[in-house]
Amino acid sequence: MSVVGIDLGFLNCYIAVARSGGIETIANEYSDRCTPACISLGSRTRAIGNAAKSQIVTNVRNTIHGFKKLHGRSFDDPVVQTERIRLPYELQKMPNGSAGVKVRYLEEERPFAIEQVSGMLLAKLKEIAENALKKPVADCVISVPSFFTDAERRSVLAAAQVAGLNCLRLMNETTAVALAYGIYKQDLPSLDEKPRNVVFIDMGHSAYQVSVCAFNKGKLKVLATTFDPYLGGRNFDEALVDYFCDEFKTKYKINVKENSRALLRLYQECEKLKKLMSANASDLPLNIECFMNDLDVSSKMNRAQYEQLCASLLARVEPPLKAVMEQANLQREDISSIEIVGGTTRIPAVKEQITKFFLKDISTTLNADEAVARGCALQCAILSPAFKVREFSITDIVPYSVTLRWKTSFEDGTGECEVFCKNHPAPFSKVITFHKKEPFELEAFYTDLFEVPYPDPRIGIFTIQNVFPQSDGDNSKVKVKVRVNVHGIFSVASASVIEKQNLEGDYSDASMETETSFKSENKDDVDKMQVDQEEGGHQKCHAEHTPEEEIDHTGAKTKPTPSDKQDQLNQTIKKGKAKSIDLPIHSSLCRQLGQDLINSYIENEGKMLMQDKLEKERNDAKNAVEEYVYDFRDRLGTVYENFITPEDMNKLSAILEYTENWLYEEGDDQPKQVYVDKLQELKKYGQPIQVRYMEHEERPKALNDLGKKIQLVMKVIEAYRSKVERYDHLDPAEVEKVEKYISDAMSWLNSKMNAQNKLSLTQDPVVRVAEIVAKSKELDEFCNPIIYKPKPEIEVAEDKAKANSEHNGPMDGQSGPETKPDIKDSSQHTKSSGEMEMD
Q: What global pTM score does this model have?
């Protein structure tokens, strides 16, 4: 089972994998651990990652980047309209009202949903992981900003489906950083001690996030999270771009913002300049050749000027820091460490603002770029049965308060309940009890619209179906479980009705006595709602904790919750006076993609992957022809020169030159089979020359090896004729067969060598190296079993054997472990002697 963590960034992506040695960030095909979040679409294929980034300037209208903020948003969303101004490619309204991109692909204008675009990127990251791990990748953990709403999170999950990934968890980026920090710490306080509070600050290319986490041994709890979704590295880039645009307008009389290609080049140069100023305080030059209208432009900037330009941006660093401390109810002295990640935290002025607020030094122990991906990989390893990871509990939070609204039986009457308050622990489940006679709807929405960076506060409408009055006409008691799951997504998980049974004997609903009722002002209101309490008697937002499977996902051990008690109670009721019946729930979620639409995206992604594969095979076939032309033409003037006649060389040179011209003219865009046929045609002319050269190079060694073997066998036969004791056990008839075989082999060898010596290098060889090697192998198989046949073992009395061994040495037929090695060693010695004589 693969264990993969993916940091799906605005500008760049990182992939981390769990291996036996620990967590490792893997590199792509360019040996770069950073993969740009870019997709470039062309007339035949797609380029994704590094290849696409190089086309941002050359293929402006069809290279998609900076699309992370478009997830889960409608086309009319103010954020989308703001991003639309920044982006060089065209955005389009999709049939379901969501934002999409319009690009030219396969010679036609085509719209793509953001889920499809992110799906393409995730599919590329999946391919990189599979190439590194050498096995299929399916399960993963993907990071998302902590401020993402339900609609945005569901959009990312849909993109993972399109890419063929099973996302085990959407993990908040700051939580992933906290896990990467805490799981390796050996000096954390024990569970009964005061926790260690650490602030994590993540300022990336497009957003700024701050979290405060409390650490105990084997436990991580997020206390509070704040953010500025509109402050990041690109804002600092834009400050430089605006400055130079104004300067160039005055100095060179050009309007850079009217030319998208020039503007993109300026963004790239300003990003480089920003990074240089982080390490240098002196004046730094900005030079761009052929910038616009064949003009070369130049300017300069230093860090002091830059910080003055970005003063308004730097002032936005402190408010989230102040807010997170207030929400966590902590003072500066309660903070043990401040950890920073994200590329923008490398700006000295940003570090200075953070240090100034906390009045202590910041820590840079974490890899600023890879910490999020490593944390995601650790979470995936915790969830995977294939890895044994140190037990570590992770409790995240709900970033926004969530409220439920429903209709009461009175005219225009509604009821509301805030089921999850801001910074509530997550994952978490609550059970709410309603008293109803008919099906009803629950509308979920974010309580405070001003704190949510999303124009629509709605989460969705959940219809509880099949609700009827009891047999005696009373309201039915409906228990509804609401949940914020491991992805941070709110849902109505289940609903059940408690049905009374007509049984004899005294009846009392004991289960309701432990619940605190939340009633309207009218005591006769039949639409009463009750929230099951964890400890009873609290306010309506403090409901029952039922984190069974959710908490298990984080690897924590949980004690039985009131939900478990309620389940046991339900079973008791079912046995006794009532029974619980599950009710169907119909969900209508805001900006939720239908499964049919997701399936169509998956199908389209498969078609595009196949098109990419076919195009790669076509390009490989074309490159093979081009490589053969250049390589063979180079060899014709060097190593192949003596193996081809002048006439054939002129003819072949002309064919190679024609093929080269053909490749760059009418052969530039041909089907794969045309290139395959062209290569076969070239090989028809070049193969004989190549064979003659290879045969000439390898033939001497093959002939020499065969000659040595013949000489060696002849030496053994001569020793046998001379009555050498080592060979006196050989069968005369078999030795005669060997002698005849060697004589024939010698004749064959001499005849082939004589015939070959009469030929010129431009003629095909009489005998091939393969034939000589086969003859040598045949000789070994025929002769070796006979001439190296071991002496038969003879049993001799032990005392006689000892006496002989003392006076005369080993007997000729003596058995034992010493005799066989002597035979092998002697044969090897004979071979060695033969080799020396041949030389």
A: 0.80
